[in-house]
Amino acid sequence: MQEKVSVPAIRFAGFTDDWEQRKLGEICTVSSGVMGNSLLTEGQYHLTRIETIADGVVDETKVGYLNQQPDDNYLLQTGDILYSNINSITHMGKVAKYQGNSMLYHGINLLRLRSNGDFDSDFLLYLLNTNGRRNWAKTHANQAVSQASINQSLLESQEIFICKKEEQIRVGRFFRHLDHLITLHQRKYSRLCNIKKSMLERMFPRDGTAVPEIRFAGFTDAWEQRKVGDFFDMTIPNNTLSRAKLTYDEGTVQSVHYGDVLIKYGAFIDAQDDEIPYIANGKMEDYKAHLLCDGDIIFADTAEDETTGKATEIGNLQGKAVVSGLHTIVCRPFEQMAKYYMGYYLNSNSFHSQLLPLMQGIKVLSLSRRNLSQTVIMFPTSKAEQAAIGTFFRHLDHLITLHQHELKRLQNIKKSCLEKMFV
């Protein structure tokens, strides 16, 4: 019989002792909460409920209420851990640590875990966030029709491995710092996304106006208006290749697929940055009439929601790719535009709001080629202003992508370390 491992795969230098197996109830006090008043939408005293830790942190804006003060035994202390023991099976065993930001009482449907003084609360928090502990919660929960539950005595009997407190503190501090970095990048990422959303609203003209609310210095001329059908050649053929005909292995002809336009690609496809599949066994001579040019616009004309009409501009694919899928419309400008401008403009609310009343369907929305051709586009006549706008949004997207990648990298590090730094 294989002996159970009693040390983690990764640990800090200087710590060599075996970890000790203990029952959870031996190292912390587990207690249930007090009932709130479900009829109250505000009250003098705040107490926790399931929603308070729905996102893995104690959200003190999502609380229950009482107008009669609970016993002080229910008052949370900084470092207390709240454990979701009555919830859907997916969220069973979710935990969060109370930071002591305001006076908050412990409510029902969450168990409170309080250290006996010889245990670091951060260490316990992250230990209970490992896959092993979350899976324990799911497999030991009593399942009902709409929710599952774990009783207090069963949770207290759960066996865990712990180390000496000095090592606990090092491990807890490491994960707390990692979470701090994740939060910083999440905030930066969210802030940049909000800036982009706002600028897409304000840097293109709104209905009935000839200039945008925000412009770069030095540009004052009114913008030009054209119908899509007058500005673009809309006769460029696409082909009906399904995704099954595409491969990410090396090939000759690349293919921009309808589904990727709708979901994967942004306002601009850059062959140097975006992973674009090839047509399996595709030969260039078979697709000469379909080849895309840089500056072409691809519209997704069908979707299950108002993303119908999503557009992307082609870049760095000159004569190397085609578009595939039934639900695409290829538009080629009759006159050259500054790179990036049109891709971002066509995804702005200034343009997309015109498409919404033209969409047809109930479960699936579609946009006809004819209706699209009658829609009005706007653009500055100055190529320099077009370039300034396009480059601004492209740089913003670059920053968003950087923070998104760093956020994902840190999340992957945390996920890996949670599995390797605990037993």
Structure description:
α2 crosses α5. The strands form nine sheets. A five-stranded mixed β-sheet has the order 13-22-18-20-16. The protein has a four-stranded antiparallel β-sheet with strand order 2-8-5-7. The chain starts with 19 loop residues before the first strand and ends with a helix. The protein is an alpha+beta fold. β9 and β10 form a beta hairpin. The protein is 30% helix and 19% strand. It is elongated.
Supply the key terms.
single chain, alpha+beta, five-stranded mixed β-sheet, 11 helices, 30% helix, 19% strand
Summarize the structure.
With about 425 residues, the protein is an alpha+beta fold. It has 11 helices and 24 strands.
Q: List how many beta strands DSSP finds.
A: 24
Q: Sketch the major β-sheet.
A: 5 strands, mixed
Low-confidence stretches: none
**Helical residue percent band:** 25-40%
Average pLDDT, to the nearest integer? 93
Helix segment tally = 11
SSE blueprint and pairings:
Blueprint (H helix, E strand, L loop, with lengths): L19 E4 H4 E4 L13 E3 L16 E3 L14 E4 L1 E2 L7 E3 L12 E6 L5 H7 L3 H10 L1 E2 L4 E2 L2 H5 L2 E4 L2 H38 L21 E4 H4 E2 L12 E2 L6 E4 H6 L4 E3 L7 E2 L17 E4 L1 E2 L7 E5 L5 E4 L3 E6 L7 H5 L3 H7 L9 E2 L2 H5 L2 E4 L3 H38 L3
Parallel strand pairs: 15-21, 16-20
Antiparallel strand pairs: 1-11, 2-8, 3-4, 5-7, 5-8, 6-10, 9-10, 12-24, 13-22, 14-17, 18-20, 18-22, 19-23
Helix pairs in contact: 2-5, 5-11
